[in-house]
Amino acid sequence: MRAKNAFVLVFLSIFIGWITLPGYATAETTASERIAVALVIDTSGSMAETDPNHLRKTAADIFVDMLSPEDHVGIVSFATEATELVPMQQVGDTANKQTIKNTLASITEVNGNTNYRAALEKAEEQLESIDDPAVRKVILFLTDGVPEPDYAQREDTVFMTAYMDSVWETTARLGQKDIAVYPLGFGTVDTSILQRIATDTRGEAKFLGSAGDIAVNFVDVLRTLKNRQGFWNESVALSGESVVPFQVDGYTSQVTMAVTYDTAGTDVFIRPVNSEAWNDRISIQKNEQYSILTMNQTEEELAGDWELVITGTGNAQLFGDKDLTLKSWMISPQANTQVPMDEPIDLVVEVDGELSDEMAVQGVVSKNGAVEFETIPLILEKGQYVGTYENVDQGGSYILETQIISGETVITSSSVSVSVQQLPVLKSDQELDGDIFKIGESQTLTGYLELDDQLLDGSQRTVINSMNLVATYSDGRQEIIPMQDAGPESGADETAGDGVYTAELPLSEEGDYSVSLVAQGTTPQGNFTLEEDSGDYRVISVGAVSGKVTDEALYTKPGSVVSVPVQLKNDSKRSETIQLSVEAEDAVAKEQSLTLEPGETSEMDIVLALDDSAPLGAKSVSITMQAEDSLTQTQSFGTEIQLFSGSAYFQKKTLDFMTKNGLFVGVLVSLPIVIIALGRLIYVLKLKQALSISRSFVYAKADDPENAQEWLLPKKVDTKLIVLGGEDKEAVLSLEGAKIPYRMIVKVETSPARFKCWEGYRTLSKTYIPVHIKIETTPPGIFKLDGEVHTNKEIFDQDAFESGGYRFIYKAEKSLAEETKARNVLEGKM
Questions:
Q1: Which of 7, 104, 439, 762 measures 20 to 30 Å from 568, CA to CA?
Q2: What does UniProt give as the signal peptide span (predicted)?
Q3: Are 535 and 432 within 8 A, CB to CB?
Q4: Is 140 within a domain?
Q5: Per the domain annotation, does 678 fall within a domain?
Q6: Has residue 28 been placed in a domain?
Q7: What's 813's domain CATH number?
Q8: Residue 339 to residue 253: CA distance in whole angstroms
Q9: CA–CA separation, 807 vs 500, rounded Å?
Q10: b or e along 323-335 (b: 16 or more beta carbons within 10 Å of the residue's beta carbon)?
Q11: What is the domain extent for residue 575?
Q12: How many CB atoms within 10 Å of residue 717?
């Protein structure tokens, strides 16, 4: 019983970092925190001796309980054959976890051989069902023995060599697919085999003294995968109530604690030290031998001092992890990769969360366990923090740590381990940077290894087991293409055995791709797996360019030049250069070219020169498009041009002009008529208005102004007589007093207007009056106005003059008076 409890205690420390029980919102999960794990468990006959207490069953149950709901899990048992116990699926809620655990009873039954390849292939098959590129795929491979698919043939060298070759083909394929394998071996395992599995897949091999060490090694792997900060790993002797203090800071989004105990009835809870309890933010899950507690914080409502309270007897083991709102991830290099010595290491770090102005991101490097470390400042470029470590001057294990700091304080950190070795460098002569290819095109990529600037061609002690081009689609699918060094017969390779490998990019399906080269081989120091990012590219359809003539009613005459308007549309997703040529009898046209951007529509004219001898009638014109890119689809188009004789052409041209510009011509012709008619209308209306104004003469004897009388002038164009010193039947007034009789003629006149339309427009001015009042006297008569003697003069409103012993004052209505005043101002009368 104690051995089983001890295993459970240790195993809990592995998976505490995997917990994410349902609760309040935490910081946004980054893509690299989402994992899909294929747990592969050895159930061969030897497990009866190495695990007689069926600890693997308990471990698998706890493993399921500790996974986050958004994670994926599949479980495979293997012996002679591999069996899928739990298909790959999202972990989901507590009920689904229980369903998964209920299927694990069979792993307690042991029998058969140890078939590594079948187990790895079944795990690969499970992980292939995950097509989300943001989910990290991992295999945890637990075994206690060497590969032995058939006990009867274990001594058959030919059989075992072929079998191990198939295992290495499988691990190479897993490495190319970025599926890391973490072998955990105990018992009679062959450490070199497990190490190569890890190397081929960029995982990490762990070699254990016994089954009790499994959990301890899981901790390092799983905490790295989940990028969490551990703060507890201690034992407590219980006797009544035990209190363990801990802190929650403002950068913490979730705290996960696990407490294991060996006495039934042990109680566990947490409480704040100086604040009220936040029970709605705390979740406790109790099992027979352990309890799991989680605290979720959305802002800083849980920040402060807390206590874990355990009540019971016996021994308890405590584990604690924190999820932070700020996290930094080493994107490149990946964990457990191999790096050539004397080659710089490019660091690429992704940060999840918002940095304040006081914060910075830096890299820290330590070599081979040395206490001293080197700091590399990282700068932000295109959403990622990048830097280069140049001092790769010794082989061994390098710990590359990324830190978010504020002043001297490290807020959060994460690290990866890489192995620096005397390795060749993987290179390529091509680097893709968003290149665009069409379906049907071809593009060759090269890959080769260099050591000390020397191309490795196989004659050196470095052996290249495989070199592959790995193309990853935007939806996560991958295509692995073996690269060849077998000469022209193998494809695009020019020379066999020269160490330069070639492969064609996959260009058969539209979409966005990223591509990398993966080389696997051996050196005298051991196996290696190298990867080189070759960039991104896009595959598009072949595309098409269409054209049409935009004017189908073209005509001209022999010996002339005609412009044929055309419109071209580029339906391709890439720039296209088009050559246009014209075919027409008795006519010539210069070839033209045009470059169209993706989706662009452009118009242009093709100038066609016709011979003098071209026959009259319809002439067919064919326009051929030829794309510079032979894959681009084009289609000829054309039109007909009507040829007329000179006179017919002139008539047609005139008719077309009138047809097309009829409105304009109509307006142009009718405008003068309208202007004249409108002016005459204005003139008539203004004249009528001016004549309708009341006008009068107020007159009285010069020596008797008090007895004034008024005479109204006619409201029409007219002439009236006033007789002074006599009588006249035609006179409207006869005034006595003049010694010698004479006549005063009063005329109501209009302005002399030869063109009444222009006179009408003149009346629109306030200073212009179309009606005039004039005074004339017959001899010997005179009249005095403003001290001057006159016999003929135009008068205006309020003008006062004297004649024949009488004083006359001319008056007009106010509306006219204002106009008259304005006129007087302009004429200098006021």
A1: 439
A2: none
A3: yes
A4: yes
A5: no
A6: no
A7: 2.60.200.20
A8: 35
A9: 127
A10: bbbbbbbbbbbeb
A11: 544-660
A12: 13
Element (H, E) at 738: none
| CB contact burial 201-238 (16+ within 10 A = b; e otherwise) | bbbbbbebeebbbbbebbbebbbbbbbbbeebeeebeb
Structure token digits, residue 624: 């051929």
User: Do 79 and 101 fall into the same domain?
Assistant: yes
Residue 124's nearest CA partner among 172, 184, 186 is: 172
Q: Which of 379, 404, 421 delimits the end of a domain?
A: 421
- State yes or no: pLDDT of 82 exceeds 90: yes
Mind listing the pLDDT tens digit for each residue in 803-815? 989 999 999 886 5
Q: What CATH number is associated with residue 309?
A: 2.60.120.380
Residue 473 and residue 334 share a domain: no
Q: Could you say which of 267, 295, 323 is where a domain stops?
A: 323
Classify the phi-psi angles of 738: left when phi > 0, otherwise alpha if psi is within -120 to 50, otherwise beta.
beta
Report phi then psi at 376, rounded to 5.
-120, 115
Buried b (16+ CB within 10 A) or exposed e, 150-172: eeeeeeeeeebeebeeebbebbb
Say if CB 442 and CB 504 are below 8 A apart.
yes
The predicted-structure confidence for 707-727, as pLDDT tens digits, reads as follows 999 999 998 989 999 898 888
Q: Which of 127, 37, 46 is nearest to 79 (CA)?
A: 46
What are the pLDDT digits (tens) for 220-265? 667 777 777 888 878 899 999 999 999 998 888 888 888 878 888 8
* Element containing residue 256 per DSSP (H, E): strand 252-261
The residue to which tokens 């205006």 are assigned: 796
Q: What is the domain count for the chain?
A: 6
Q: Which two tokens stand for residue 365?
A: 């490097």
Alpha-carbon span 763 to 104, nearest angstrom: 109
Same domain as 492, residue 415: no
* Residues in Cβ contact with 274 at an 8 Å cutoff, skipping those fewer than 6 apart: 304, 305
Which one, of 261, 257, 39, lies nearest residue 142 by Cα? 39
Q: How far apart are CA 503 and CA 468, in angstroms?
A: 8
